[in-house]
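Mods, move this if it's the wrong board.
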Amino acid sequence: MFIWLENLINILVKEIFKLDLNSTIGSSVHFFFYDIIKILILLSIMIFIISYIRSYFPPEKTKKYIEKFSGISGNIIASLLGIVTPFCSCSSVPIFIGFIEAKIPLGITFSFLITSPIVNEAAFAILLGSFGWKIAILYIFSGVILGVFGGLIIGKLNLEKEVENYVYKIKMGEIEIEKMSQNQRFFFAINNVKDIIKRIWIFLLIGIGIGAFIHGYAPEEFLIKWAGPENPIAVIISTLIAVPLYSNALGTIPIAEALIGKGVGIGTALAFMMATTALSLPEGILLRKVIKPKLILIFFAVTSIGIILTGYLFNIIL
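Not the wrong board. C-alpha coordinates:
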Protein backbone atom coordinates (compact mmCIF):
# COMPACT_ATOMS: atom_id res chain seq x y z
CA MET A 1 0.00 0.00 0.00
CA PHE A 2 2.84 2.39 0.80
CA ILE A 3 5.59 1.19 -1.53
CA TRP A 4 5.63 4.63 -3.18
CA LEU A 5 6.21 6.22 0.22
CA GLU A 6 8.97 3.80 1.14
CA ASN A 7 10.77 4.55 -2.13
CA LEU A 8 10.35 8.28 -1.52
CA ILE A 9 11.82 8.04 2.01
CA ASN A 10 14.66 5.85 0.67
CA ILE A 11 15.60 8.71 -1.68
CA LEU A 12 15.28 11.22 1.16
CA VAL A 13 17.58 9.25 3.47
CA LYS A 14 20.17 8.35 0.83
CA GLU A 15 20.25 11.42 -1.39
CA ILE A 16 19.31 14.28 0.97
CA PHE A 17 20.65 13.08 4.35
CA LYS A 18 23.50 11.05 2.77
CA LEU A 19 22.92 8.10 5.14
CA ASP A 20 23.30 4.37 4.56
CA LEU A 21 19.89 2.68 4.89
CA ASN A 22 21.54 -0.35 6.48
CA SER A 23 23.24 1.69 9.21
CA THR A 24 21.62 2.14 12.63
CA ILE A 25 21.11 5.88 12.18
CA GLY A 26 19.93 5.46 8.57
CA SER A 27 17.32 2.84 9.49
CA SER A 28 16.15 4.97 12.46
CA VAL A 29 15.73 8.09 10.31
CA HIS A 30 13.89 6.05 7.67
CA PHE A 31 11.55 4.60 10.33
CA PHE A 32 10.82 8.06 11.73
CA PHE A 33 9.87 9.84 8.51
CA TYR A 34 8.15 6.85 6.92
CA ASP A 35 5.95 6.22 9.98
CA ILE A 36 5.03 9.88 10.46
CA ILE A 37 3.71 10.29 6.91
CA LYS A 38 2.10 6.83 6.75
CA ILE A 39 0.34 7.21 10.08
CA LEU A 40 -0.92 10.72 9.34
CA ILE A 41 -2.42 9.55 6.03
CA LEU A 42 -4.11 6.53 7.62
CA LEU A 43 -5.26 8.56 10.62
CA SER A 44 -6.93 11.18 8.46
CA ILE A 45 -8.77 8.59 6.36
CA MET A 46 -9.92 6.40 9.24
CA ILE A 47 -10.87 9.24 11.57
CA PHE A 48 -12.98 10.75 8.79
CA ILE A 49 -14.78 7.45 8.05
CA ILE A 50 -15.42 6.56 11.71
CA SER A 51 -16.40 10.13 12.59
CA TYR A 52 -18.93 10.16 9.76
CA ILE A 53 -20.40 6.88 11.10
CA ARG A 54 -20.25 8.26 14.65
CA SER A 55 -22.34 11.27 13.65
CA TYR A 56 -25.27 8.81 13.64
CA PHE A 57 -24.46 7.66 17.22
CA PRO A 58 -24.21 10.59 19.66
CA PRO A 59 -23.93 9.46 23.34
CA GLU A 60 -27.63 10.06 24.06
CA LYS A 61 -28.70 8.02 21.04
CA THR A 62 -26.19 5.27 21.93
CA LYS A 63 -27.69 5.05 25.41
CA LYS A 64 -31.24 4.87 24.03
CA TYR A 65 -30.22 2.19 21.54
CA ILE A 66 -28.56 0.02 24.21
CA GLU A 67 -31.67 0.32 26.41
CA LYS A 68 -33.58 -1.81 23.89
CA PHE A 69 -31.42 -4.88 24.46
CA SER A 70 -30.96 -7.23 27.40
CA GLY A 71 -29.00 -10.40 28.18
CA ILE A 72 -25.99 -11.30 26.06
CA SER A 73 -27.38 -9.40 23.06
CA GLY A 74 -27.14 -6.24 25.19
CA ASN A 75 -23.48 -7.00 25.97
CA ILE A 76 -22.73 -7.57 22.28
CA ILE A 77 -24.51 -4.39 21.13
CA ALA A 78 -22.84 -2.33 23.89
CA SER A 79 -19.40 -3.61 22.87
CA LEU A 80 -20.05 -3.00 19.17
CA LEU A 81 -21.24 0.55 19.89
CA GLY A 82 -18.09 1.01 21.97
CA ILE A 83 -16.10 0.73 18.71
CA VAL A 84 -17.76 3.72 17.04
CA THR A 85 -18.23 5.81 20.17
CA PRO A 86 -14.80 5.86 21.81
CA PHE A 87 -14.21 8.03 24.84
CA CYS A 88 -11.26 8.85 27.06
CA SER A 89 -10.89 8.04 30.76
CA CYS A 90 -12.18 11.50 31.73
CA SER A 91 -15.56 10.69 30.11
CA SER A 92 -16.06 7.44 32.01
CA VAL A 93 -17.93 8.96 34.97
CA PRO A 94 -20.66 10.90 33.07
CA ILE A 95 -21.20 7.99 30.69
CA PHE A 96 -21.45 5.56 33.60
CA ILE A 97 -23.99 7.80 35.38
CA GLY A 98 -26.02 8.18 32.17
CA PHE A 99 -26.21 4.43 31.67
CA ILE A 100 -27.18 3.77 35.31
CA GLU A 101 -29.87 6.48 35.14
CA ALA A 102 -31.27 4.78 32.03
CA LYS A 103 -31.43 1.54 34.10
CA ILE A 104 -29.07 -0.26 31.75
CA PRO A 105 -27.79 -3.37 33.59
CA LEU A 106 -24.34 -3.07 35.18
CA GLY A 107 -22.86 -5.88 33.08
CA ILE A 108 -23.96 -4.22 29.82
CA THR A 109 -22.62 -0.86 31.02
CA PHE A 110 -19.22 -2.42 31.64
CA SER A 111 -19.22 -4.12 28.22
CA PHE A 112 -19.32 -0.58 26.78
CA LEU A 113 -16.78 0.78 29.29
CA ILE A 114 -14.28 -1.99 28.50
CA THR A 115 -14.49 -1.97 24.69
CA SER A 116 -14.75 1.77 24.10
CA PRO A 117 -11.28 2.84 25.33
CA ILE A 118 -9.55 -0.25 23.94
CA VAL A 119 -10.85 0.06 20.36
CA ASN A 120 -10.59 3.41 18.65
CA GLU A 121 -10.32 4.53 15.05
CA ALA A 122 -6.87 6.06 15.39
CA ALA A 123 -5.35 2.92 16.91
CA PHE A 124 -7.03 0.85 14.19
CA ALA A 125 -5.55 3.09 11.48
CA ILE A 126 -2.03 2.78 12.91
CA LEU A 127 -2.32 -0.98 13.35
CA LEU A 128 -3.57 -1.27 9.78
CA GLY A 129 -0.61 0.68 8.45
CA SER A 130 1.96 -1.01 10.67
CA PHE A 131 0.82 -4.64 10.74
CA GLY A 132 -1.83 -5.07 8.03
CA TRP A 133 -5.50 -6.02 7.92
CA LYS A 134 -5.14 -9.33 9.76
CA ILE A 135 -3.90 -7.82 13.02
CA ALA A 136 -6.10 -4.72 12.73
CA ILE A 137 -9.26 -6.86 12.43
CA LEU A 138 -8.10 -9.18 15.22
CA TYR A 139 -7.53 -6.10 17.39
CA ILE A 140 -11.16 -5.00 16.97
CA PHE A 141 -12.46 -8.55 17.38
CA SER A 142 -10.49 -9.10 20.59
CA GLY A 143 -11.65 -5.73 21.99
CA VAL A 144 -15.29 -6.69 21.41
CA ILE A 145 -14.81 -10.18 22.87
CA LEU A 146 -13.15 -8.67 25.95
CA GLY A 147 -16.04 -6.25 26.40
CA VAL A 148 -18.72 -8.93 25.98
CA PHE A 149 -17.19 -11.47 28.36
CA GLY A 150 -15.96 -8.86 30.85
CA GLY A 151 -19.48 -7.40 31.04
CA LEU A 152 -21.07 -10.84 31.32
CA ILE A 153 -18.81 -11.80 34.24
CA ILE A 154 -19.44 -8.50 36.09
CA GLY A 155 -23.18 -8.85 35.41
CA LYS A 156 -23.27 -12.40 36.85
CA LEU A 157 -21.58 -11.24 40.07
CA ASN A 158 -24.58 -9.01 40.99
CA LEU A 159 -22.45 -6.07 42.07
CA GLU A 160 -25.14 -3.36 41.94
CA LYS A 161 -24.58 -2.65 45.66
CA GLU A 162 -20.99 -1.70 44.82
CA VAL A 163 -22.24 1.41 43.00
CA GLU A 164 -22.34 4.53 45.20
CA ASN A 165 -25.92 5.12 46.40
CA TYR A 166 -26.09 8.73 45.18
CA VAL A 167 -25.59 7.58 41.57
CA TYR A 168 -29.03 5.89 41.60
CA LYS A 169 -30.64 9.18 42.67
CA ILE A 170 -29.15 11.36 39.91
CA LYS A 171 -31.62 12.62 37.29
CA MET A 172 -29.80 14.02 34.27
CA GLY A 173 -32.98 14.60 32.29
CA GLU A 174 -33.64 14.04 28.60
CA ILE A 175 -31.26 15.62 26.09
CA GLU A 176 -32.64 16.43 22.65
CA ILE A 177 -30.86 14.41 19.96
CA GLU A 178 -29.56 16.76 17.29
CA LYS A 179 -30.47 15.89 13.69
CA MET A 180 -27.74 16.49 11.13
CA SER A 181 -27.85 16.92 7.36
CA GLN A 182 -25.37 15.07 5.12
CA ASN A 183 -23.46 18.31 4.71
CA GLN A 184 -23.22 18.73 8.49
CA ARG A 185 -22.05 15.12 8.91
CA PHE A 186 -19.31 15.73 6.33
CA PHE A 187 -18.02 18.83 8.12
CA PHE A 188 -18.42 17.08 11.51
CA ALA A 189 -16.04 14.38 10.24
CA ILE A 190 -13.61 16.92 8.74
CA ASN A 191 -13.52 18.95 11.96
CA ASN A 192 -13.02 15.77 13.98
CA VAL A 193 -9.98 14.86 11.86
CA LYS A 194 -8.50 18.32 12.50
CA ASP A 195 -9.34 18.22 16.20
CA ILE A 196 -7.93 14.74 16.91
CA ILE A 197 -4.71 15.29 14.96
CA LYS A 198 -4.24 18.66 16.66
CA ARG A 199 -4.60 16.98 20.06
CA ILE A 200 -2.47 13.88 19.48
CA TRP A 201 0.37 14.97 17.16
CA ILE A 202 2.82 15.47 20.02
CA PHE A 203 2.12 11.97 21.43
CA LEU A 204 2.57 10.62 17.93
CA LEU A 205 5.93 12.33 17.44
CA ILE A 206 7.20 11.13 20.83
CA GLY A 207 5.99 7.58 20.22
CA ILE A 208 7.49 7.42 16.72
CA GLY A 209 10.72 8.97 18.01
CA ILE A 210 11.05 6.28 20.70
CA GLY A 211 10.07 3.64 18.13
CA ALA A 212 12.76 4.91 15.72
CA PHE A 213 15.39 4.70 18.48
CA ILE A 214 14.35 1.16 19.38
CA HIS A 215 14.31 0.21 15.68
CA GLY A 216 17.90 1.31 15.20
CA TYR A 217 19.58 0.88 18.56
CA ALA A 218 17.72 -1.48 20.95
CA PRO A 219 19.64 -4.74 21.63
CA GLU A 220 17.73 -7.42 19.74
CA GLU A 221 19.01 -10.44 21.70
CA PHE A 222 18.05 -8.87 25.04
CA LEU A 223 14.50 -8.08 23.87
CA ILE A 224 13.97 -11.53 22.37
CA LYS A 225 15.20 -13.16 25.58
CA TRP A 226 12.90 -11.21 27.92
CA ALA A 227 9.91 -10.33 25.72
CA GLY A 228 10.04 -12.78 22.81
CA PRO A 229 7.30 -15.35 22.11
CA GLU A 230 9.38 -18.06 23.81
CA ASN A 231 9.21 -16.36 27.21
CA PRO A 232 6.05 -17.84 28.83
CA ILE A 233 5.50 -14.94 31.24
CA ALA A 234 6.29 -12.02 28.88
CA VAL A 235 2.61 -11.22 28.24
CA ILE A 236 1.79 -11.20 31.96
CA ILE A 237 4.72 -8.91 32.77
CA SER A 238 3.94 -6.45 29.94
CA THR A 239 0.28 -6.24 31.00
CA LEU A 240 1.07 -5.72 34.70
CA ILE A 241 3.59 -2.98 33.83
CA ALA A 242 1.08 -1.23 31.54
CA VAL A 243 -1.97 -1.27 33.84
CA PRO A 244 -0.98 1.63 36.14
CA LEU A 245 0.36 3.74 33.25
CA TYR A 246 -1.66 6.50 31.62
CA SER A 247 -0.68 6.58 27.98
CA ASN A 248 -2.09 7.25 24.58
CA ALA A 249 -2.51 4.29 22.19
CA LEU A 250 -1.26 6.46 19.36
CA GLY A 251 2.07 6.97 21.04
CA THR A 252 2.29 3.36 22.19
CA ILE A 253 1.68 1.66 18.83
CA PRO A 254 4.81 2.97 17.03
CA ILE A 255 6.82 1.71 20.01
CA ALA A 256 5.06 -1.66 19.77
CA GLU A 257 5.81 -1.73 16.02
CA ALA A 258 9.54 -1.21 16.66
CA LEU A 259 9.59 -3.81 19.45
CA ILE A 260 7.89 -6.39 17.24
CA GLY A 261 10.46 -5.62 14.53
CA LYS A 262 13.14 -6.50 17.08
CA GLY A 263 11.57 -9.87 17.87
CA VAL A 264 9.16 -9.08 20.72
CA GLY A 265 6.01 -11.23 20.49
CA ILE A 266 3.08 -9.52 18.72
CA GLY A 267 0.71 -10.56 21.49
CA THR A 268 3.12 -9.25 24.15
CA ALA A 269 3.35 -5.83 22.47
CA LEU A 270 -0.40 -5.61 21.81
CA ALA A 271 -1.22 -6.63 25.40
CA PHE A 272 0.93 -3.73 26.58
CA MET A 273 -0.87 -1.33 24.23
CA MET A 274 -4.36 -2.54 25.18
CA ALA A 275 -3.63 -2.41 28.92
CA THR A 276 -2.35 1.18 28.74
CA THR A 277 -5.51 2.32 26.95
CA ALA A 278 -8.15 0.23 28.76
CA LEU A 279 -6.88 0.57 32.32
CA SER A 280 -4.98 3.26 34.15
CA LEU A 281 -4.57 4.62 37.66
CA PRO A 282 -6.26 7.96 36.74
CA GLU A 283 -9.26 6.07 35.35
CA GLY A 284 -9.54 4.06 38.58
CA ILE A 285 -9.47 7.29 40.62
CA LEU A 286 -12.20 8.82 38.44
CA LEU A 287 -14.38 5.72 38.65
CA ARG A 288 -14.03 5.76 42.46
CA LYS A 289 -16.41 8.74 42.40
CA VAL A 290 -19.24 6.45 41.28
CA ILE A 291 -18.33 2.91 42.26
CA LYS A 292 -16.77 1.27 45.33
CA PRO A 293 -13.22 -0.16 45.50
CA LYS A 294 -14.40 -3.79 45.26
CA LEU A 295 -16.04 -3.21 41.87
CA ILE A 296 -13.03 -1.22 40.60
CA LEU A 297 -10.72 -4.10 41.56
CA ILE A 298 -12.99 -6.65 39.87
CA PHE A 299 -13.20 -4.46 36.73
CA PHE A 300 -9.40 -4.15 36.58
CA ALA A 301 -8.88 -7.87 37.33
CA VAL A 302 -11.39 -9.11 34.74
CA THR A 303 -10.07 -6.77 32.03
CA SER A 304 -6.42 -7.55 32.83
CA ILE A 305 -7.00 -11.31 32.65
CA GLY A 306 -8.85 -10.85 29.34
CA ILE A 307 -5.98 -8.78 27.90
CA ILE A 308 -3.43 -11.38 29.04
CA LEU A 309 -5.40 -14.20 27.40
CA THR A 310 -5.72 -12.11 24.23
CA GLY A 311 -1.96 -11.51 24.23
CA TYR A 312 -1.25 -15.23 24.45
CA LEU A 313 -3.80 -15.89 21.68
CA PHE A 314 -2.04 -13.39 19.37
CA ASN A 315 1.35 -14.96 20.15
CA ILE A 316 0.03 -18.43 19.31
CA ILE A 317 -1.80 -17.68 16.06
CA LEU A 318 0.55 -15.04 14.54
